[in-house]
Write a structure and sequence with these properties.
The complex is a heterodimer.
Chain A (H helix, E strand, L loop, with lengths): L2 E10 L2 E11 L4 E5 L6 H9 L6 E6 L2 E2 L10 E4 L11 H11 L4 H14 L15 H13 L5 E5 L7 H17 L4 E6 L2 H7 L2 E6 L2 E7 H6 L4 H6 L4 E4 L1 E3 L2 E4 L2 E2 L10 E5 L5 E16 L3 E8 L6 E7 L10 E5 L6 E4 L4
Parallel strand pairs in A: 3-8, 3-9, 6-7, 7-8
Antiparallel strand pairs in A: 1-2, 1-4, 4-5, 9-10, 11-15, 12-13, 13-14, 15-20, 16-17, 16-19, 17-18
Helix pairs in contact in A: 2-3, 2-4, 3-4
Chain B lengths: L1 H20 L1 E3 L6 E3 L2 H6 L2 H34 L2 H16 L2 H11 L11 H26 L3 H8 L4 H30 L4 H4 L7 H10 L3 H31 L1
Helix pairs in contact in B: 1-11, 3-6, 3-8, 4-6, 5-6, 6-8, 7-8, 8-11, 10-11
Classes of the chains: A alpha+beta, B mainly alpha.
The complex binds adenosine-5'-triphosphate and magnesium ion.
Enzyme class (chain A): translocase
Protein name (chain A): ABC-type quaternary amine transporter
Pfam families (chain A): ABC_tran, TOBE_2
């Protein structure tokens, strides 16, 4: 079943939290809403769930206009940012909540709760209270509770934000598995973490200041970001000012062979891991080097562009130049693209 | 040093009342002729009736205050801002206004038809309700402010009707606040004199009013014994309610 948002706009008093969002999520598709804090991701989710009323626009689920339908009648599964497990109910009763609200027969409730807890690996915790669970366990219960009512649409609001790095990686695995368990559900996954979006989503919608900036299949968005904001937010690309003249693209006066020129005010976009240190490249100075385990992150400044910081990820193990040393920076043309400068 | 001064100021009245309750006479510096007859007086006849009156008033008034306070606090969640400010002020009025004035107001308001409550126990209950509801409203509203709307939102998204959200999510989550509002209002009600003395009918004399009346008639020792009873009953009530709260928090 598809979810359609059409020009959805939400105001809180004077602040506009969401401005004219158009978005379609197909059955079985995962769309990630990715954006910095305060960009309106949760607001978009709340509008779909029915927790806030849009001041403009329509929301359709499976073609039916639900804009004026209360949340209880929408049948959408929601996992909110802080899980909101009912603190006075045991795990099993939390999961059973939606089934009991729908007055399902006792036997069915028991069976479904057991099935859901089994799916998220929480069967042994059925009798616990939420505060007796870790963050990751609460997360699983919240997902089980949302999926127990067999919703055609599942909304997840930054579900891993409250977890530490190790647990986040584990839960990301779990979510990928879970995705395969519910192949027909349309999922909207809100996150501010690009790694989660890339790992889980079929398409990524990048949001900024209450607006949708770009939306495209994840791989396309990463490979050829349509805007400077997306380029830097998704994958932390380097953005370098360029001079374009007669089919030639130059950076700090050095021509880049193989990069095709484009109309308009553009920036050169290249990922940190694509930049190489070698011979015959742009002269630059190494300003800092940070060892990150599997790779090292170098920060450089190209001669002639003292205000622009260029990040380079080089695999660990190789020799690193001294900080302060002169280096030569190679920008492979196949890794370069031009993006509209727009507003950063 | 300050602690000692404070302790003397706070504890001295209790000690003196306790001593007076058990003494036959108090002519010198110390009380003499220890006796339990005052206590027996305090627990018989009219005075015992006062105790049951006080208990009924406190429980009934307290209960109503909790219901109204909780209701108002929940309603103010969805009401418009100016309306909320108005009811906020309205509910807090009884804290600012001297209780004698509240009593007088009720007496005037309910002394003629169609609202002829003067002379019945209901005017006392209403007086207590008006005075306590400010505290219950405040306590529950503060707790409500701290709870996230997300719980009710999630419950609704799971298909729960507004009534189900209220009874199975909102109220259970407010239980600790509701219980402490109840124990606060019962304790205050047990000791209320100012408004009660303005409105009480002869058939419905609360314990603190009895203490006041006895003292007025010069029966200080019986009054002291009765104060002791009042103190004991209030402590027992509050501790019992607090136990309930403790259990609510644990769950
Ligand atoms: N209930 C509210 N009342 C007033 N303003 C609000 C409310 N909820 C959100 N906002 C404002 O709307 C904007 C978007 O908020 P939203 O919660 O959608 O951001 P977000 O993208 O989810 O951020 P985060 O990643 O921090 O969760 C913010 O500027 C926020 O201050
Ligand atoms: Mg959010």
């Amino acid at each position: 079943m598809t979810v359609q948002l059409e020009d959805v706009t939400v105001h809180f008093g004077r602040t506009c939290a969401l401005e004219g969002l158009n978005l379609t999520v197909a059955a079985g598709e995962t769309v990630a809403l990715l954006g910095p804090s305060g960009s309106g991701k949760s607001t978009a989710l709340k509008a779909v769930a029915g927790f806030v009323r849009p001041s403009r626009g329509r929301i359709r689920i499976a073609g039916v206009d639900v804009t004026d339908v209360p949340p209880a009648k929408r049948g959408i599964g929601v996992v909110v940012q802080q899980y909101a497990l009912f603190p006075h109910l045991r795990v099993a009763d939390n999961v059973a909540f939606g089934l009991r609200a729908a007055r399902r027969p006792k036997a069915e409730v028991t069976r479904r709760v057991a099935e859901m807890l089994d799916m998220v690996g929480m069967s042994t915790y059925a009798r616990r209270f939420p505060r007796e669970l870790s963050g990751g366990q609460q997360q699983r219960v919240a997902i089980a509770r949302a999926l127990a009512i067999r919703p055609p649409v599942l909304l997840l609001d930054d579900p891993l934000a409250a977890l530490d790095a190790q647990l986040r990686a584990d839960m990301l695995d779990e979510l990928q598995k879970l995705r395969r368990e519910v192949p027909d559900v349309a999922i909207v996954y809100v996150t501010h973490d690009q790694a989660e979006a890339l790992a889980l989503a079929d398409r990524i919608a990048v949001m900024r200041a209450a607006r949708l900036v770009d939306i495209a299949p994840s791989a396309d968005l990463y490979a050829a970001p349509p805007s400077a904001f997306t380029a830097s937010f998704l994958g932390g690309a380097n953005l370098l000012p360029v001079e374009v003249s007669a089919d030639e693209v130059r950076v700090a006066g050095h021509p880049l062979a193989g990069v095709r020129a484009k109309e308009g005010n553009n920036l050169l976009c290249i990922r940190p891991h694509a930049v190489r240190l070698g011979s015959g490249g742009l002269p630059a100075r190494l300003l800092a080097a940070q060892w990150r385990g599997a790779s090292s992150r170098l920060t450089c400044a190209i001669d002639g562009l003292p205000d622009v910081r260029v990040h380079i990820d080089v695999p660990a193990g190789g020799p690193l130049p001294e900080v302060g040393a002169q280096v030569s920076m190679v920008l492979p043309p196949e890794a370069c693209s031009l993006v509209p400068a727009g507003t950063r | 040093m300050f602690a000692i001064v404070l302790a003397v100021l706070v504890l001295a009245p209790f000690v003196v009342v306790g001593a007076a309750a058990f003494s036959g006479s108090w002519n010198g510096v110390f009380p003499s002729d220890p006796t339990t007859s005052h206590l027996r007086d305090a627990l018989s006849g009219d005075e015992l009736a006062s105790l049951t009156v006080s208990l009924q008033t406190a429980l009934l008034g307290g209960l109503l205050a909790v219901v109204f306070g909780t209701w108002a606090a929940l309603a103010s969640r969805t009401a418009s801002a100016p309306l909320v400010r108005f009811t906020d002020a309205l509910y807090h009025l009884p804290i600012a206004v001297p209780s004698v004035v509240v009593g007088l107001g009720l007496l005037v308001a309910f002394s003629r038809p169609p609202l002829l409550l003067n002379g019945t126990k209901w005017i006392v209950v209403i007086a207590h309700l008006v005075l306590m509801v400010a505290f219950t409203y405040g306590t529950v509203a503060a707790a409500l402010q701290r709870t996230d709307d997300a719980y009710a939102d999630v419950a609704a998204s799971l298909g729960a009707s507004p009534a189900r959200v209220l009874w199975q999510v909102r109220l259970p989550m407010l239980r600790p606040a509701i219980v402490s509002a109840a124990s606060l209002s019962v304790a205050l009600s047990m000791g209320e004199v100012g408004a009660t003395i303005m409105v009480y009918p002869a058939s419905w004399r609360t314990l603190p009013v009895s203490v006041f009346a006895l003292t007025d008639r010069g029966q200080t020792f019986v009054a002291a014994a009765e104060s002791l009873v009042l103190l004991a009953v209030t402590v027992v009530l509050v501790v019992t309610l607090d136990r309930l709260r403790g259990r609510a928090v644990e769950r």
